[in-house]
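Thread title: Can someone regenerate the structure for this chain?

I was given the following input by a collaborator and told the matching structure tokens would be attached. They weren't. Posting the sequence so someone can regenerate them.
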Amino acid sequence: MEWITALSEQYGYLILFMGLFAESLALPFPGELAMAVFGHLAASGRLSLPLVMLYSYGGALAGTVLTYFLGYRLGTPFFERYGRFFLLNAERIVKISNWFAKYGDKLILVSYFVPGLRHFTGYVSGMLRVRLTTLLLYNGLGGALWVTLYVMIGKLFGHRIAELLHTISQYSALAITLLAVIGTAAVMIKHKKAAITKWLGRHL
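Best answer:
Regenerated them for you:
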């Protein structure tokens, strides 16, 4: 927190934009903590809250769009061979691709809240040829919710940032798991109903 505060005093909003841009490229930067600290600084009157949210959102979205085009242009074979330089190995590509196959493009909507997913959403979306408009829609909505949540945590709770971020990360992972289970169950029930209807149609 002290490090981020010092950077904010030296570079202002630019460090927030560049930090979240870098994090979207899978480079190490504590995005949630940075937004919370900047939100706290805005609450104390040292920064503008709308600008904190704007720079955060802009950096995150710009980074994801860049990685989308990298994934789209370079393709899966390139990342299977050189992805380790982007912290994106072949195993991770397969895992995220399977998530897309299972849950569809709407996975992008919650990607910011899933540890180990938001950093690679753009790359894999590009490799899978997800439409750019779809990426912008779901990533834009998810990014807006993500930025608002963590900036407001900093604004409202300040000194309890670290504790709250830990709690949020625990419950967000639980919520995503629950949604995944519900989604899988709904698909299974739908297919089972379709199979029963088909069988009845043949035998009645």
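DSSP finds nine helices and no strands in the chain.
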